[in-house]
Design a protein that fits this description.
This protein is mainly alpha-helical and 228 residues long. The chain folds into 2 domains: 102 residues, no CATH class; 101 residues, Serine Threonine Protein Phosphatase 5, Tetratricopeptide repeat. The chain has 13 helices and no strands.
Length: 228
């Protein structure tokens, strides 16, 4: 049942989703998945999200008989729909290992995040910092603080940026933007454990498991730093 997983993979990696439990898969499937998909991506001329999706699609098709064994042919739900659900569950449950252990996948995700940040940066290139500072002096408003904190962030002034984000959290501890950018600052400055803790906090605040990608990216960096 080929042809559907490329789109599914892209959605799983980029978009938020609910946690899954219940379905367990044998080690023979789990162990080969990351290696074969990563090898496929290594041997592909283009390292893009769509390429990774195609590699996963090919792998699922190759082992379709294994996944077919989980289909309940007595169910009212049609077999192809069941197959799709089973394959998606498998990918979700193996997502961390794939990202952490396959550097090419990590680089693709980092490139996606970099592009999003570059788009955000454009909003802060022509900020009148003097005006923002005066507004903050007159009234310490979190909106002004956030603007200044992001201005500092995008100009690599980590300490100033961090101070403003922490000040925001003093009055608004659930501010997801402040938590996210503090996570990024800690990640970019090599404080990986602090970054992971902040990304976990962000998931608790937003209920958005998209940020698991950031956690797995950091875990990949931790693995590279340890030399494993």
């Amino acid at each position: 049942m080929p042809g559907f997983m490329k789109q599914v993979f892209v959605l799983i990696i980029i978009l938020s989703f609910v946690s899954l439990s219940g379905q367990e898969f044998p080690d023979e499937l789990n162990n080969g998945f990351q290696q074969e998909v990563c090898d496929c991506l290594n041997n592909s001329p283009q390292k893009k999200m769509e390429t990774a999706g195609a590699c996963i699609d090919n792998w699922i098709t190759k082992y379709s008989a294994k996944f077919n064994s989980y289909i309940d042919f007595n169910s009212k739900k049609n077999p192809q729909e069941q197959f799709s659900e089973i394959a998606v569950k498998f990918i979700r449950q193996n997502r961390e290992n794939l990202i952490v252990n396959c550097g090419e996948i990590t680089e693709i995700l980092r490139a996606v995040r970099k592009k999003l940040l570059e788009n955000d940066k454009k909003n802060y290139e022509s900020i009148d910092l003097d005006s923002i500072n005066k507004s903050i002096d007159n009234k310490e408003d979190n909106n002004f603080l956030l603007t200044r904190a992001k201005y500092y962030f995008f100009h690599d002034e980590w300490d100033r940026s961090k101070a403003d984000f922490n000040k925001i959290l003093e009055s608004d501890p659930q501010n997801d933007k402040a938590v996210y950018f503090l996570g990024l600052i800690n990640e970019l400055t090599g404080n990986y454990r602090e970054a992971v803790d902040l990304y976990h906090q962000l998931i608790d605040i937003t209920k958005d498991e998209t940020y698991l990608n950031d956690i797995y990216i950091v875990k990949r960096k931790m693995k590279e730093r340890s030399g494993n």
